[in-house]
Amino acid sequence: MCISRRITIRLSLLLISMGLLLLGVSVLLAEGDSLDTALRRMLAEQNVSPLTVRNDFSPELVALGQALFFDKVLSGNQDISCATCHHPLLATGDGLSLSFGTGGKGLGAARMMGVGRTLVPRNAPHVFNLGAEEYQFMFWDGRVAQLADGRIITPAKEQTPDGLLNLVAAQALFPITSIDEMRGRPGDVDVLGHANDLANIPDGDFPAMWEAVMARLLAIPEYVQLFQSAFPGKTAFDIVDYANAIGAFEIQAYTFTESPWNRYVAGDDAALSDEAKQGALLFFGEAGCSSCHSGALLSDQQFHNRVVPQLGPGKGTGAPFDYGRMLETGDGEDLFAFRTPSLHNVALTGPWMHNGAFTTLEAAVRHELDPETGCALYDVTQLLPLLQPEVLEMSAAQIMMGTQIGRVELSEAEIQDLIAFLGSLTDPAALNLSHTLPASVPSGLPLAD
Ligand code: HEC
Ligand code: HEC
User: Would you say 209 and 133 are in contact if contact means Cβ atoms under 8 Å apart?
Assistant: First the structure.
């Protein structure tokens, strides 16, 4: 009797605990279930699809583009290539808040500015996924743009050549014309001791600059061969061929869309941690990030003022300020507005913002949650000592100029979830890009830095 009673008690305890366990499991399941259900409903409502990029260029075109991208012969002083500021070992950026152009030496944090040179006014963006058809603008202020009818407009206005394959190719026409980035100043002497012929061309004469660069390239037999293989049947080559090759290389080499996030959006529930899913719920929900970081690209391709502290020499007529999109449109509504960046691979691409004002992703995210306070309490010590005096004394109110900018309050745990979501946008293959570095370039100039 006594024994059987004990057994019954044990049995019922066992049953109760099994029941609790089952209950626990089903609650967990329901939670996991509702997390995916809620998130997928949000993604459907907001039309978020996986990011896709067409990259089907011929290997010969890409090979020419790679040689050009890494060759300092493109710069007036033969001391800087595209890769100096968009380096594969630095996630296709330069790791600096603001770039140091021609005259500088070294790479990344070790790069030194040339004596008497001016800082490049903006942060060198990554070149990941630029072939996505969602892109309508290149540059932080969108000064290279593709209209709905396919026409491409650029700072060269009516001098813009025909035949550009895409926006990325159009962009490649301009770094070689920029005095501080690649062209150099009149009177400069290049690294081989020759006068800098590109620097003496008058500023607005884009065709003359492009012809001079092509003349340099076609004087090198290996380039003639590379151009011939890239454009079979063609005998004369011009800057459009150069631009299309560079664009093809950038798109072919730096398309990285296999992030956990993209796999999740494509239907794989297991691709994302619960933390990242919670973060995504906030991003597309309560935190309001997706009102601008929207769609497959996580960018609305619009321009917004995010009250980022002003840092650097400034740009154009606005200097020492950088008026951003207003420099292009002349519209007061665009004052301090910059293109919403795509956030794919964003954990790799610091420093962040148009001028690299934030040097950790967490600082950038905290700023985005409360831009006004982020600006008012900006911590300059996150910048390199050289850049700290470059922060302009401007209040958040001055930068906001009457714009209504919301603030989002999240708990610390929620902020970490949001950061976990941003981490899920990293394609693991983008972590190592060393295979995109060539062994040498046709000019024979050194590759290092
Ligand atoms: C001195 C550093 C430097 C060099 C050299 C340089 N860039 Fe850049 N690049 C930048 C900066 C800074 C920006 C942003 C400028 C702006 O938005 O006003 C930029 C913007 C870009 C963009 C636009 C990306 C986007 O998201 O809009 C592309 C593409 C690009 N560069 C490719 C190139 C290519 C190709 C070359 C060589 C022909 C090159 N860059 C040379 C610093 C550099
Ligand atoms: C009103 C539009 C808008 C909203 C809302 C918004 N952003 Fe942004 N975001 C931008 C723009 C524009 C920039 C670039 C600003 C600049 O450089 O001056 C930016 C920059 C960023 C950057 C830096 C990216 C880079 O490559 O430098 C991150 C990270 C970011 N936002 C995350 C978020 C998160 C997280 C939220 C939600 C809490 C959010 N943003 C809300 C428009 C927005």
Answer: no
349 lines ligand 2 (CB under 6 A): yes
Cβ of 306 less than 6 Å from ligand 1: no
Per-residue 3-state assignment (H helix, E strand, C coil) for 314-362? CCHHHCCCCCECHHHHCCHHHCCEEECCCCCCHHHCCCECCCCCECCHH
d(CA 411, CA 173): 46
Q: Looking at the domain 260-426, which fold is it? A: Cytochrome Bc1 Complex; Chain D, domain 2 (1.10.760)
Q: Which residue's alpha carbon is nearest to atom 12 within ligand 2?
A: 340
421 CA distance to ligand 2 centroid (A)? 14
CATH class of 59-256+431-436: mainly alpha
- Backbone region of residue 132 per phi and psi (left: phi > 0; alpha: psi in -120 to 50; beta: other values): beta
Q: Give CA–CA dist 126/344, Å, rounded.
A: 10
Q: With 0.85 as the threshold, say if the pTM is over it.
A: yes
Whole-angstrom Cα distance, residue 66 to residue 436?
8
| Mean predicted lDDT score pLDDT of the chain | 93
Q: Domain segments of the chain: what residues?
A: 59-256+431-436, 260-426
Identical fold, 59-256+431-436 and 260-426 = yes
> How many angstroms does the Cα of residue 15 sit away from the middle of ligand 2?
53
Cis peptide bond prior to 351, omega within 30° of 0: yes
- Quick count: other Cβ atoms within 10 Å of Cβ 218? 14
Q: What is the mean pLDDT of residues 282-293?
A: 98
Mean pLDDT (whole number) for 95-113: 96
Per residue in 151-169, pLDDT (tens digit) is 999 999 999 999 999 999 9
- Rounded to whole angstroms, the Cα distance separating 247 from 394 reads 38
Task: Kindly state the average pLDDT of the residues 113-124.
Answer: 96
At 73, give phi and psi (nearest 5°). -60, -20
